[in-house]
């Protein structure tokens, strides 16, 4: 199966500052040079994860921290790694943690897996004293009114666990930068006044940093009205390259994709691409019906194929005006685990599972096999007709991320892990997968509801609840992982 490439590369700016104790350098010749060599190893480990690294050198007393702090603050960082190359006094760290409002992670990677006790020296101990001041730094962070920083503990070499944590934090940094710099379009209105869909754009900007761009359907209509025929033709070819067009099976509202629906979907996708480019958007939440028989209705009800292509290219598209779920989809996409728009469908009590999916948009890069397009004579519960996307999510582990709002107006992540089963789904032109969740489907769904989620969520592949919880922590957002024991 072909994979759609990202529209924009993921990136983040990660700072590294090493810490030590200035008294040691005069006492142990060569120790300072060894510490710089250790720091260079960490820098290399971080740089290989597609992030820009800014190294601020080694700080060994409070005076140096105060002098370096303006540079750190001006660097526009998404993550600061504090490399605990040896013991350091917490005055070196206190000014940093007090002044910075970005994720800070302490990295304690000692060169040796264990000291050579029979031949140990103080020099050897200091060279491996990476963890020594971690508790001191954590205590000072709390006294400064901050959360205890996250810690990576391990060895400098041949430690896949520590290396995986470094990679995870680089990915979290990419999520953090994406959210705080995103321009997310909001167009139309809530579908049928679904009360759980209403989101205050100012609150969203406050929580995530994303700027909300208020858009009109006419902004897309301008690009629909007089499209470049060559672009429409190329878009048809792109669609047919990525999608199958099967015959109908059991649902009488489905048809094999018609030439007319293919043309409309391609034309709408070209208009959508032009609109996104014009507005310089990174995501979009929308719902708009338009008058019966109008060009606006034809356009706005035929964005499903185009927005699924965009979603796979790293541009979250969220139907039903659900901008908070657009954020959840962006989080999953930036973690490179997908992020389809989903909700719960009928329960399969025979298989102890439940259908999860929606009528679009979908992250087609996480499809099991080639996704399909069917022509629909009607969109259930909504006006319009046309092409719709259908596929199974990849078999195996899955994660769901709901982004809901509490009674005090705060955002909350609701997270759960399960399994996508390799079983048939209804051939209705909608994307679904049959999900199994522990301990059993009834208990799980009751627990999910008890966490008070919205009815939509983002659906991704793999088990990533722990990483998503860390994302919530760095954003200062409450999160709950639904228990499955």
TrEMBL record:
Identification of the protein by name: Arabinose isomerase
Biological processes, Gene Ontology terms: L-arabinose catabolic process to D-xylulose 5-phosphate
Keyword terms: Arabinose catabolism, Carbohydrate metabolism, Isomerase, Manganese, Metal-binding
Keyword Isomerase set for record: yes
Recorded superkingdom: Bacteria
Matches recorded under InterPro entries: AraA_N_sf (IPR038583), Fuc/Ara_isomerase_C (IPR004216), Fuc_isomerase_C (IPR015888), Fucose_isomerase_N/cen_sf (IPR009015), Lara_isomerase (IPR003762)
Location of the L-fucose isomerase C-terminal domain: 379-478
Organism encoding this protein: Tessaracoccus lapidicaptus
Example GO molecular function: metal ion binding
Alphabetized Pfam families for the sequence: Fucose_iso_C
GO cellular component terms, A-Z: cytosol
PANTHER family per record: L-ARABINOSE ISOMERASE (PTHR38464:SF1)
Gene3D superfamilies in alphabetical order: 3.40.50.10940
């Amino acid at each position: 199966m072909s994979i759609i490439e990202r529209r924009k590369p993921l990136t983040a700016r990660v700072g590294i500052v090493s810490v030590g104790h200035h008294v040691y350098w005069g006492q142990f010749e060569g120790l300072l040079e060894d510490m710089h060599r250790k720091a260079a190893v960490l820098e290399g480990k971080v740089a290989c994860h597609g992030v820009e690294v800014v190294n601020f050198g080694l700080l060994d007393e409070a005076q140096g921290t105060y002098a370096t702090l303006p540079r750190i603050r001006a660097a526009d960082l998404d993550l600061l790694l504090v490399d605990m190359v040896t013991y350091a006094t917490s005055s070196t760290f206190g000014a940093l943690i007090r002044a910075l409002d970005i994720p800070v992670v302490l990295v304690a990677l000692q060169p040796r897996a264990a000291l050579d006790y029979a031949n140990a020296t103080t020099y050897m101990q200091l060279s491996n004293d990476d963890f020594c001041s971690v508790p001191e730094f954590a205590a000072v962070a709390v006294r400064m009114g901050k959360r205890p920083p996250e810690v990576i503990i391990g060895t400098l070499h041949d430690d896949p666990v520590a290396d995986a944590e470094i990679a995870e934090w680089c990915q979290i940094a990419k999520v953090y930068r994406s959210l705080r710099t995103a321009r997310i379009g909001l167009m139309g209105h809530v579908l049928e006044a679904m009360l759980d869909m209403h989101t205050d754009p100012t609150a969203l900007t406050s929580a995530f940093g994303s700027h909300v761009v208020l858009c009109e359907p006419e902004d897309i209509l301008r690009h629909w009205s007089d499209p470049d025929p060559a672009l429409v033709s190329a878009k048809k070819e792109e669609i047919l390259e990525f999608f199958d067009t099967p015959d109908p099976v059991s649902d009488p509202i489905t048809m094999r994709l018609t030439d007319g629906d293919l043309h409309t979907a391609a034309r709408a996708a070209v208009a959508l691409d032009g609109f996104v480019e014009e507005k310089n958007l990174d995501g979009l939440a929308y719902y708009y019906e338009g008058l019966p028989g109008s060009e606006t209705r034809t356009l706005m009800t035929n964005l499903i194929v185009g927005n699924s292509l965009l979603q796979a290219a790293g541009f979250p598209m969220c139907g039903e005006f659900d901008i908070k779920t657009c954020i959840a989809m962006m989080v999953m996409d930036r973690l490179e685990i997908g992020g389809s728009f989903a909700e719960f469908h009928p329960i399969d009590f025979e298989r102890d599972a439940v259908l999860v999916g929606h009528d679009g948009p979908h992250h087609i890069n996480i499809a099991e096999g080639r996704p399909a397009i069917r022509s629909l004579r009607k969109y259930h519960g909504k006006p319009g007709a046309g092409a719709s996307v259908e596929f199974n999510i990849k078999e195996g582990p899955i994660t769901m991320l709901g982004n809901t709002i509490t009674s005090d107006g705060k955002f909350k992540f609701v997270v759960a892990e399960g399994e996508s089963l390799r079983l048939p789904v209804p051939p209705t032109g909608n994307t679904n997968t049959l999900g199994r969740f522990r301990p059993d489907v009834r208990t799980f769904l009751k627990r999910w509801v008890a966490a008070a989620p919205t009815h939509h969520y983002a659906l991704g592949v793999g088990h990533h609840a722990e990483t998503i919880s860390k994302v919530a922590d760095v954003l200062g957002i409450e999160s709950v992982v639904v228990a499955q024991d």
